[in-house]
Amino acid sequence: MNTHVAAPGRFRTDLEAGAFPVTAEIGPPRGADAGAIVRKVLRLCDWVAAVNITDNQGAAVRLSSWAGSLAAMTAGVEPIMQVTCRDRNRIALQSDLLGASAMGIPNVLVMTGDHPRSGDHASAKPVFDLDSVELLRAARTMRDEGRLLSGRELDPPPGWFLGAVENPSAPPADAGAARLAKKVAAGAQFVQTQYVFDAAAFRRWMSQVRDLGLHERCYILAGVGPISSLRALSHLQHRVPGVQVPAELARRLRGVPAERVAGEAMTACAETISELRQIPGVAGVHVMAVGHEHRIPAILHLAGLAETGARHAG
């Protein structure tokens, strides 16, 4: 079997160097316009190590993650291609993973995915042939052993930096680190978490993570983001499972005039980033401001993070 070792991308290199990299979430457009991706990532190229290209987030149809990843690369920004198990069986999933490696996409993040009933095709048939842990294990086997799930050989095998997601606030409260341990054992090399609004609660979760030694086996990026409006606050509080918005933050946002909510939220997000940087084992942050990506540089500046210079993919 021929061997193929992909060169590490800048995102991985920054993590290995302890540089506290920033990643940002990019939602592809609901239309056939790759330029929408390019315009978003160009605003971020001097601030982030890589951008996540979501895979039909919220179970709503958008430009595909692999197409968005290639568009980001043409703009000189390194992508993290998200792959969900919701819409594909194991044949299609493995095929897409091979395609990502063949096209030079250096990072892949796998997740189980939202059920179709939450999206714009509620009657669509869900697949879920594999879950995220099973897909991580399959991807690791493809890369490290050069074999498909069927056992057939790959020549050459693919290469990517493998990621997963985790929600530290998901119930039961004492199971989050154990869930992460399963994903690390399956092959996750980096993990991006759900929104962190309560740094103290996240600190307690990270203590569990360190007790299991997971921070030494996997890079952990804490998810952050500004709550851009009171409507967004209500959505997070009542319609996003596992997200906990502290009462103090909710009062803070409701205590300013409507035209100041977005600015106050950006300041609060920057303050959270500053707190997270002090927690042992936190390797970076993942900023989720889909639809408001233009605000990310200002948030990072407020948090005391400097521009990194242009980040060229490949």
C-alpha Rg, in Å?
A: 19 Å
Helix content: 25-40%
Low-confidence stretches: 1-5, 310-314
Q: What fraction strand?
A: 5-15%
CATH architecture: Alpha-Beta Barrel
| Total of domains | 1
Order of helices and strands: HEHEHEHEHEHEHEHHHEH
The order of strands across the largest sheet is 1-2-3-4-5-6-7-8
CATH topology: TIM Barrel
Number of DSSP strands?
8
Tell me briefly what this model is.
This protein is of the alpha/beta class and 314 residues long. The chain has one domain (10-302): TIM Barrel (Alpha-Beta Barrel). The chain has helices spanning 10-16, 35-42, 65-74, 90-102, 132-144, 176-186, 199-211, 230-239, 247-254, 261-276, 296-302, and strands at residues 22-26, 50-53, 79-84, 107-111, 161-166, 190-195, 219-224, 282-287.
